[in-house]
Amino acid sequence: MLHLLRFILIFILVVFLLSFIFRLIINYFFKRLGKKYGGHGYNEESKPEGEVHVSRSPKKDKVVDKSVGEYIDYEEVKGDD
């Protein structure tokens, strides 16, 4: 009878320890995923409410190869319908 009680006690202790360790691991991975994919709900360096910041990339000039040909401007001609 004593061995059975000891086994049950050790089993319960192991289950609690594994569940605690499992929770820590899952919590770590969720925080890591949140940081990796933006973390929209959790941001430590959040800006004050109402502040807007727009960042734009500099405009790039169109690069056209000279071998393509020259540009011809055209006018649209309406028919006599």
List descriptors.
1 helix, mainly alpha, rod-shaped
What is the structure about, briefly put?
With 81 residues, the chain is mainly alpha-helical. It is built from one helix and no strands. The protein starts with a helix and ends in a 45-residue tail after the last helix.
C-alpha Rg, in Å?
A: 33 Å
Strand tally: 0
Shape: rod-shaped
The largest β sheet comes out as:
none
Please state the average pLDDT score. 80
Distance between the ends = 106 Å
Helix and strand sequence: H
* Helicity range: 40-55%
Q: Which structural class should the secondary elements be placed in?
A: mainly alpha
- The poorly predicted ranges are none
Helical segment count: 1
**Percent of sequence in beta strands:** under 5%
Provide an overview of this structure:
The protein is mainly alpha-helical and 81 residues long. It has 1 helix and no strands. It has one helix spanning 2-36. It is rod-shaped.
Compile the SSE list and pairings.
Layout: H1 2-36
